[in-house]
Amino acid sequence: MAATVYAAEENGSEGAWGGGRMTDRPPRGINPGRPPRIDTSTAHSARIYNYWLGGKDNFPADREAAQAAMAANPGIVADARANRAFLARAVRYLVAEAGIRQFLDIGTGLPTADNTHEVAQAVAPESRVVYVDNDPIVLAHARALLTSTPEGAAAFLDADLREPELILKSAARTLDLGQPVALMLLIVLHLIRDAEHPERIVTRLMSALPAGSYLVLSHPARDVQPAAVAEMTRRVNDRMRGVTATPRTRDEMARLFDGLTMMEPGVVQPQHWRPDPATETPAEVTAWCGVALKS
Ligand SMILES: C[S@@+](CC[C@H](N)C(=O)[O-])C[C@H]1O[C@@H](n2cnc3c(N)ncnc32)[C@H](O)[C@@H]1O
Question: Which atom of ligand 1 is nearest to the CA of 112?
Answer without folding.
Answer: 9
